[in-house]
Amino acid sequence: MMKKDLYRPNVAMIIVSNDYPQKKEIFIAQRNDLSNVWQFPQGGIDDGEEVLEALFRELKEEIGTKAVKIISEYPEWISYDFPPKIAKKMSPYKGQKQKYFLVKLKKSAKIDVNTKDPEFSDYKFVDVNEALNLSASFKQSVYETVIKHFRDEGYL
Questions:
Q1: SS3 letters across the chain
Q2: Is 0.85 topped by the overall pTM?
Q3: Taking a C-beta distance cutoff of 8 angstroms, is the pair 120, 53 a contact?
Q4: Separation in Å, CA 104 to CA 1, 15, 27, 46, 117
């Protein structure tokens, strides 16, 4: 595989509140390094790490809790390319290939984005369409595809 074809393995999660399925709002967080950019929690899968291990580790690192129940998993890996500015910073990777999960916060979950190495400055639960409108343009098609899948399956 040529260097320009490298995609970083990544796990991502669409989080619904513990009021789900009565309320179908999803969690979105504002990045602290890019102004007015909101996204779903996600993160790289370390060498030798299983996807589910990465899922729970990233939840804890990014939102301060791993108290979730997995509702569903997107059936395949999905990828996107980084914009040029981010690609330089993430070299040698051209983009990310992601495994998506739909997870529900447990009643005991306490969200805290002020973690050891915070990536987010704020968060909120929003309607699915609002999440799409707030997301970074280079992730939009992935978000739309994954959300459509979970909608088609009756989850969102």
A1: CCHHHCEEEEEEEEEECCCCCCCCCEEEEEECCCCCCEECCEEECCCCCCHHHHHHHHHHHHHCCCCEEEEEECCCCEEEECCHHHHHHCCCCCEEEEEEEEEEECCCCCCCCCCCCCCEEEEEEECHHHHHHHECHHHHHHHHHHHHHHHHCCCC
A2: yes
A3: no
A4: 37, 6, 10, 24, 24
- The radius of gyration computed from the CA coordinates of the chain, to the nearest angstrom, equals 15
Give tens-digit pLDDT for 19-53: 999 999 999 999 998 778 899 999 999 999 999 99
Over residues 78-97, the pLDDT tens digits come to 999 999 988 898 999 999 99
